[in-house]
TrEMBL record:
Pfam family, one: ABC_tran
Family according to the record: Belongs to the ABC transporter superfamily.
Organism classification: Bacteria, Bacillati, Actinomycetota, Actinomycetes, Kitasatosporales
Chain intervals for the UniProt region annotation (Disordered): 244-263
Protein's name according to its UniProt entry: ABC transporter ATP-binding protein
GO MF term list: ATP binding; ATP hydrolysis activity; branched-chain amino acid transmembrane transporter activity
UniProt KW Nucleotide-binding keyword: yes
Entry keyword Nucleus: no
InterPro entries in the cross-refs: AAA+_ATPase, ABC_transporter-like_ATP-bd, ABC_transporter-like_CS, BCAA_Transport_ATP-bd_LivF, P-loop_NTPase
Entry superkingdom: Bacteria
Amino acid sequence: MRDISVGYGPVRALRRVSLDLPEGTVVAVLGGNGAGKSTLLRAVSRTLSFQGGALTSGSVHFGGRRIDGLAADRVVAAGISQVPEGRQIFARMTVTDNLRAGALGATGSRAAKADALRRVHDLFPVLADRGAQRAGLLSGGEQQMLAVGRALMASPRLLLLDEPSLGLAPLMAARIADTIREINAQGTSVLLVEQNAALALRLATTAYVLDVGEVALSGPADELAASDEVRRRYLGVVDEDAAADATRGTGAPPTLRRWEADR
Ligand SMILES: Nc1ncnc2c1ncn2[C@@H]1O[C@H](COP(=O)(O)OP(=O)(O)OP(=O)(O)O)[C@@H](O)[C@H]1O
C-alpha cells in the first residue's frame, strides 16, 4: 500500500501509510489502542465502508493488480481473506456451516473447496470433531480457530489477521501462533495485526509500528524486537538506561527506519 489515508467522517484514522508485504512472508503491524491497525486491514479487504469509513488517498496493489477500487467480495475472489477483530463467527450456525460460509466468496472448484476443508481440519482437528455443534458453544480459543479456518476456506494467498491472540490464555495464544507459522509455511502470506508485540515479532519477518494513524517505525522484526523504544513501549521491558537513551534519540538501531526521515 502506498500513502494510504483513511477517514471515518471527520475522524482521520490513517495518514499516508505505506507498507510492503513480499510474497510468502509474515508482516506484523503493531500499535496501541486506536493506532489504526484494524483500519489498515479494512483498507486492504475493502470493508471500510461497512464501518462508515473511506479511503481518502493512496493505493493498494496485490500481485501486480490495483485492488483499492474493488468491492469486498472481489477482494476475496482475488485471493485475500480477513479474520476480523472479535472473530465474528456465526454463533447459531454449526461449526461446519461456518466453514462453508467462508468458501462462499471463493472462485475455486468443488474439489478445491473440499481440499480447503481438509486443510482446515488437519490444522484444527477440533473443528472436525465438533463440526455438528453450534459454533457459539466453542471456547474462545476454538472460536478463534474457527475464524481462521473460515478465512482459509477461500484458499487465500494472503490472510489478514486482526488480533488473533486477543483474550486468549498464553498457552492458547501460543497454539494459534504455531498455526499461523504453519499456514505461512504452506505458502500463504500473512498480514498480522497484534497488540501482543512479543508474539507478533516472533512470527513476522518485517514489522511496522503505527502510532496515531502514522507509521512511527518499521524494519526487520528481529531488529525491532531489539529496539529499546519497542521494548519499552510495546514489550513492557523496563530499562532505565534504554529509556534515557530513547529520550536522547539514540535508542533505535540504525537499520530501523524512522518514518519522519523518509519525508
Ligand atoms: N467505525 C468507526 N467510526 C468512527 N471512528 C472509528 C471507527 N473505527 C475506528 N475509528 C477510529 O479510528 C481510529 C483507529 O481505529 P482502529 O480500530 O483502526 O485502531 P486499532 O489500532 O485497531 O485499535 P484497537 O487495538 O483498539 O482495536 C481510532 O481513533 C478509532 O476511534
